[in-house]
Amino acid sequence: MDIIGPLDLLAGVQIALKSPDKLYEVELVSPHGGLINTKPGNIVMNTTAVADLIDGHIDILLIAGGEAAFEIAKDPDICSLVENLALRSTYVASICTGVFLLAQAGLLKNRRATTHWAWSKKLSDDFPETLVDAEKIYVKDGNIFTSAGITSGMDLALALIQSDFGAETALTVAQFWVMVLKRSGGQSQFSSLLPVPQEISTPIDRVITWAQKNLTSDLSVDEMAKYIAMSPRNFSRRFTKEVGLTPAKYVETLRLYKAKSHLELSEKSLDEIARVTGFSNADSLRRSFLRTFKVSPKYYRQRNG
């Protein structure tokens, strides 16, 4: 999907606009050419070798992601290749973990970028000079576009089409592909950021498991600390260190994700959902949902229910 999604949109501009001419000439390129296999789908694709590219200008250099991206980014020859191709390109873009090749090639210093929510912290840690915006579906900084995971590459392709041909053309393509031109909200709508213990090995694991099963209970710091016989101060410090969220933020997020599931899978009213997920009332749930997911519960249900 990293490869086919955006390339299909770019090549398909001709179809959407009913143009007699190819508006994009798309070519799939790999370091050595020949057949490549994707993971996990094991789809075989034929590629052109980089050395066979005709010298000259490239409109869009688009780097796909994948499981091997982190290792590939350590190859100095590949990074040098990306850097040299970028110099020939009007736009440079990445899908998902492809951003690590751009960063390693030195193309993201003091630039804003994004990647899949699961790898945003690694990107920020490995490349502190890159300004990582983990919430965005895609980010444009100058002539460099970066996108989050997998299907967001198609959102990025629409943004590239808009840059080349304008918003009306991009909207026509989006309609043809049954897409929205700009998705509302950010990656937090789609990620699963809450830690779920695979095995209960620490007191914090134990309190997390208890909290997940008791959303309507008093989940204050005092009560959670009491459950595992810890002082509130020590509990709060250890919880934040192990989980990466304060206890209060974790509980709020836990309740929000449960509410999100109800919006997707049930016809419960917002009042009912607030009651079974531990929010004080529907207004409290609505404010928290909007603050976290950047869309209202009503809008989210319309799109995902």
What does it look like?
With 305 residues, the chain is an alpha/beta fold. The protein has two domains: 4-187, Rossmann fold (3-Layer(aba) Sandwich), CATH 3.40.50.880; 203-304, Arc Repressor Mutant, subunit A (Orthogonal Bundle). 47% of the residues lie in helices and 12% in strands. The chain has 15 helices and nine strands. It has helices spanning 4-11, 13-16, 69-72, 76-87, 99-104, 120-126, 152-165, 167-176, 203-213, 221-227, 232-243, 247-265, 270-277, 282-293, 297-304; strands at residues 29-30, 34-37, 44-49, 58-63, 89-94, 112-113, 131-132, 138-141, 144-147. The strands form three sheets. A four-stranded mixed β-sheet has the order 4-5-9-8, sandwiched between helices. Strand 2 (34-37) and strand 3 form a beta hairpin. Helix 12 (247-265) packs across helix 13 (270-277). The mean pLDDT is 89.
